[in-house]
Design a protein that fits this description.
Elements lengths: L7 H5 L8 H18 L1 H29 L4 H33 L2 H4 L9 H27 L8 H28 L3 H9 L19 H9 L2 H12 L6 H29 L2
Length: 274
């Protein structure tokens, strides 16, 4: 079995100088960012796939779908933008599952047992680095949307509320994928486990109104976590009042994070003790 060597900053640390959790978080966040930015193909795919998805829906399906709702292509661009941003988060977070699984299965975690800081800082570092990557991808999606003609006249508070809710879901999906990478037996399995999560935006109000879906699908589409998050973000970007959708979206995010953190706290010590 090949054992990955810890970063030089970690090897230089010793129990005598007391490298703590913050030091470990800084080191492993930097390590994960270096690896991800060196893997330019994965980084580009995480950014380009959602952009291509937005272009396909807006320019191929947008006119016909918007016409059925009494709008035009620019209206549909504003409609799908939150869903595309959340889809970008899913593509980016799936990379986290793979790199966490690699660390868990190559002996890297076992090497950290001799280091003077919690091994869980590796997971936290991957999560922090994934947040940086996904926020970058979301920024690219928003910039291209503005370039395609998206405009909003909302104030800073509404815009920050919409972006903040999207950023919160980015944190949720990142934590979930990190846990999936921790429990998976291989990097391929980690990627496969999370693949189903990438389909959630499509079976929501993200690309078409729930009311236009078959009756047997409307129940799921209307009550899954993506729908209130997308609806609240969309309404905030249009200057409206999101109502209960905002709080429902926050509750979904809080529930996912609580469960993921609990699973990590229970399962992570067992995984590294093997």
């Amino acid at each position: 079995m090949t054992t990955t060597t810890p970063p030089r900053e970690v090897q230089a640390a010793s129990p005598g100088n007391g490298a703590g959790a913050l030091t470990g978080l800084r080191v492993f966040t930097g390590r994960s960012l270096k690896h991800s930015f060196r893997d330019t193909e994965s980084l580009l795919m995480a950014i380009l796939l959602p952009v291509m998805l937005m272009l396909i829906f807006v320019f191929i399906f947008g006119e016909s779908i918007a016409a059925g709702q009494g709008g035009d292509r620019s209206d549909y661009l504003a409609y799908v933008l939150p869903a595309v941003a959340l889809t970008a988060a899913g593509f980016g977070a799936s990379y986290t599952a793979v790199v966490v699984s690699n660390d868990m299965t190559t002996g890297f975690m076992n090497r950290l047992r001799t280091m003077p800081f919690p091994a869980v800082t590796v997971l936290l570092g991957h999560t922090a680095a994934s947040m940086v990557r996904n926020l970058l991808a979301t920024g690219v999606v928003l910039a291209i949307a503005f370039g395609l003609g998206f405009r909003t006249e909302v104030g800073i508070a509404e815009f920050a509320g919409a972006v903040g809710l999207i950023a919160l879901w980015i944190l949720v999906i990142t934590v979930v994928f990190a846990v999936l990478g921790m429990v998976a037996g291989s990097a391929e399995a980690a990627s496969g486990y999370g693949f189903v999560l990438l389909f959630l935006p499509y079976v929501s109000s993200g690309f078409a109104p729930v009311e236009t879906m078959p009756g047997w699908l409307q129940g799921f589409a209307g009550h899954q976590p993506m729908t209130p998050i997308i609806d609240a973000s969309r309404v905030l970007l249009s200057g409206g009042n999101p109502g209960d959708e905002w709080w429902i979206g926050l509750l979904w995010c809080g529930g996912f994070i609580a469960v993921a953190v609990w699973l990590a706290a229970v399962l992570f010590p067992r995984k590294i003790a093997r």
